[in-house]
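Operator note (shift B, R.M.): manual run for Fatty acid methyltransferase requested after the automated queue skipped it. Running by hand, logging everything below so the morning shift can see what happened. Input copied straight from the record, untouched. If output looks odd, do not overwrite the archive copy; leave it for review.
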Amino acid sequence: MKDLRTNFLDHVKNSLNGKPLFLRILFWDGHEYAFNQDIRVTMHLHSAKLISRILMGSALDVLGEGYVEGDIGIEGRYQDILAVAEQLGDSFPAKKSKGGIFRKHHAAHSKAKDAEAIRYHYDVSNDFYRLWLDRNMVYSCAYFKTGEEDIHTAQGQKLDHICRKLHLQPGEKLLDIGCGWGGLLSWAARNYGILGVGVTLSEQQYAYAKERMEREGLADRVEIRLQDYRDIPEREHFDKVSSVGMFEHVGRTMLPEYFGAIQRVLKEGGWTLNHGITASQQDDEDGHHSGSDFMDKYVFPDGEIPHLWRVVRDMAGQHLEVLDVENLRAHYAQTLIHWVRRLEEHKAETLAMIGEKHYRIWAIYMASCAYGFWRNWLALHQVLAVKQTRSELTPRPWERRYQYQDDSFRLAEPQWDDL
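Run finished. Output pasted below as returned.
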């Protein structure tokens, strides 16, 4: 075992290229080694098999799984732990790629398989999510104006930002695909006077959102359905369509069908906003990356993230003309930091609710995602588009000021008489 341990330590030291590694390792047999006098992270390796697996590659997957299963103990701040994990991942470059925390494969996204994946992630329990989400129960990137807002304020700002971008008007019919616990539809109905339909594949989200609309007196204006987006009847036509934090579950090969379904139920000249995680680099879409197995096994079965170019191309292919693109990468890093802190604040309740293993999964998953957004391994884009199937110019704003101010705006209507 000594040779195995020495081989591992030498491999890591030789790969550091003079960079400090603020790590101390306590081995299964009582030996310990500190890479630096400044120790910020202490790692307890309880088995020699872990080193054998790390030496074979996929270090981040091995470390993540070992931590969740209790084979590795870790002490330190999350930001230091993740920085150390990145360096250990860099020690094995054959398996290292910036940005790969979701599995990069093309899963068979059948309706049954998608429903199963959604149930796995979202049907933990509504009480669990209520512990660390904001009061509106919004499980997607918040919107910060100063970076100092609490999560409740920032999520309210995000909901309003989406409503403003879509320029929602009283009486308009809004479809929210992947409506979660109904936060956006509730906000839009109460503050913008819309009529809404929300669809979700999560039975627990469906039950909560449906009860919520009744509790808030919105049941006659907002309908919640347990329904796949592919099953929305063609006869239904909406003025606006939103999809927030949902298309990561769609699959890249399914994006044309996904945007086609949106285009099919959207009236001519109607607007749609797609809000979702995207790959930061084009080459991050393909191939297997460190951390992918961990995410696919423990967090997001069959999750895939496309690059922005693919999103814009596939929207255009379905006659959805892009009007506006906004990158909220910094906002998602900040959102995840809030979530991790709130999860830690409710650790005792969480442990009683879901147990130690699942607490570790959620804590390391959200902390690693925050780190990934901060390091530009991931991005978050809001893409606003208009349905344009005819040659005539459909109305759209001349400028973006309407998204941030209450005053009315002019629509683009070329004055042909001036030509």
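Quick read of the result: Residues 94-106, 117-122 have pLDDT under 50 and may be disordered. The chain has two domains: 2-95, 111-390.
Leaving this for review. - R.M.
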